[in-house]
Amino acid sequence: MIGIAGVFLVADDSAAATSFSIEEEDLDYGKVNTSIKYVIEWTDAEGYKYEAKLYDSSGKAVSGGISNGTGTCTAANGSAVISVSENDAGSYKVKVVFTKGEGDEAVSQERSDSVKFVDPIKLTATISNTGDAERSFRVYFVVNGEKMDDSRQDVVVSANGTKEVSYEYITKNVSDGKFYLEADTTGLGGMIKGLGPDSTHNFYASANDYTWIEILAVVVVIILAILAIYIYRKPIRNYGKPKARR
């Protein structure tokens, strides 16, 4: 309530400005060929239509990268979930354009967020059983000191046998690292080999770091542009008219 010269005016707080947002539902990165969900939300936007598209690092639209990417804001306040996927690893951007009206009277707003798709790093280790009895237990991969809950596996190692265990490690910022296998029980005795920090393995994943690949591509384009300018501006030497033979 506001008083002006003895007159009281009641401010209406119910009127909210139109607003839009987009945010990842969980993580903003994932494995290639899998879906990453994004939530778009709107306020005071009844009647707006929205369209979502996926763009690569060069700004080119990616065909088929969005599922459930179009719709209408049927209520003033609401939300919708879109799915993003891509076959090629790299950095991308999700853009959503909200539009209301037609022609010259149309108004629009754009919101965007980043997403990254990576090739998984396959980690493999071998467990051996030097005992005379088959052993069953559960193992996890510990990568760079962090226990990967989604790597949980139940393994059976035969007597005097071995078992190879693999895990697809997915991370946004790829770098070299270390890993080992950890069992969820301490009652295995000394017959099971290949577990714990004493059996740490190294992995080298520099080939999967798409950031440096994208930077290298930009550098190559710049070098080619400079080379083209140099060739274009290089003066043509005139060596004169060739002498006639006598």
Radius of gyration: 30 Å
- Tell the overall outline: flat
Query: Quaternary status of these chains?
Result: single chain
Distance between the first and last residues' Cα: 110 Å
State the major sheet: 6 strands, mixed
- Helix count? 1
In sequence order, what are the helices and strands, one letter per element?
EEEEEEEEEEEEEEEEEEEH
* Relative helix content: under 10%
Residues in β-strands, percent = over 45%
What structural category characterises the helix and strand content?
mainly beta
The count of DSSP E runs of length 2 or more, i.e. the number of strands, is 19
Uncertain parts: 6-15, 207-214
What average pLDDT do the residues reach?
A: 85
Summarize this structure as a short list of keywords or feature phrases.
single chain; 246 residues; mainly beta; 6-stranded mixed β-sheet; 4-stranded antiparallel β-sheet
List the helices and strands and how they pair.
Layout: E1 2-4, E2 7-9, E3 19-24, E4 29-31, E5 36-43, E6 49-55, E7 61-62, E8 66-67, E9 70-72, E10 78-84, E11 90-100, E12 107-118, E13 121-129, E14 135-143, E15 146-157, E16 162-169, E17 177-183, E18 192-193, E19 201-203, H1 210-233
Parallel strand pairs: 4-12
Antiparallel strand pairs: 1-2, 3-5, 5-10, 6-7, 6-9, 6-11, 8-10, 11-12, 13-16, 13-18, 14-15, 14-17, 17-19
